[in-house]
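Fill in residues.
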């Protein structure tokens, strides 16, 4: 049987650059990412089944009832959720899986799967965060203000994350993330089966 992949959650303030970093990790190093379902409308250039599965509120609520999500949360007026089957399939096939989700959802996953690693990506400071959100040009000022207000609340969650990674220079950050993710293969929490095998190997000695 192939070794199980690692599961890592990547969160951070809206505008921290998570999406770009995760995209580079997938492209360069072949990580699997979970595609979430959401009730928010597609942004310019976003595609169904690539960025998200875009759902009506009714369809999303039916998925909740059928227990199809590992977790789901509401974020600035919309639902976001992680479908269960794909993630489990990829981990069992030995692939490392990244979930890019917000903090309430991250903590729910951690409750269900204590071996998950929580990684928080942040810009170097608050003025840079604002500059990136405004520079993106895809959101109205009202939504930008809501996202900044939400980021202010989210600061407290940084305390609950295993790792904090500063995204100052994109390329350096991608390499740092890859090194961190690879090191997780050696973490005790991800080696439980191996430890059991070693102990079993000594049983008759
Ligand atoms: P955006 O609308 O900018 O694509 O995403 C808004 C927030 O929702 C981001 O913080 C993103 O990480 C988070 N998000 C995306 N998918 C999921 C999901 O499946 N579950 C949860 N809990 N959050 C998600």
């Amino acid at each position: 049987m192939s070794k199980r992949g690692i599961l890592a959650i990547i969160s951070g303030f809206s505008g921290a650059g998570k999406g770009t970093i995760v995209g580079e990790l997938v492209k360069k190093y072949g990580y699997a990412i979970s595609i979430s379902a959401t009730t928010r409308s597609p942004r310019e250039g976003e595609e169904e089944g690539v960025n998200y599965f875009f759902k009506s509120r009714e369809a999303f609520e039916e998925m909740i009832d059928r227990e199809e999500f590992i977790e789901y949360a509401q974020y600035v007026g919309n639902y976001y959720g992680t479908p269960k089957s794909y993630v489990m399939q990829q981990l069992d096939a030995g692939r490392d899986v990244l979930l890019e989700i917000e903090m309430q959802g991250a903590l729910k996953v951690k409750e269900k799967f204590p071996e998950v690693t929580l990684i928080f990506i942040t810009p170097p400071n608050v003025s840079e965060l604002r500059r990136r959100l405004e520079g993106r040009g895809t959101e109205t000022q009202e939504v930008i203000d809501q996202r900044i207000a939400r980021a202010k609340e989210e600061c407290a969650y940084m305390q609950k994350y295993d790792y904090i990674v500063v995204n100052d220079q994109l390329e350096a950050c991608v390499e740092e993330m890859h090194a961190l993710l690879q090191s997780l293969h050696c973490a005790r929490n991800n080696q439980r089966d191996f430890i059991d095998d070693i102990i079993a190997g000594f049983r008759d000695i």
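The domain at 35-95 is CATH 3.30.63.10 (Guanylate Kinase phosphate binding domain).
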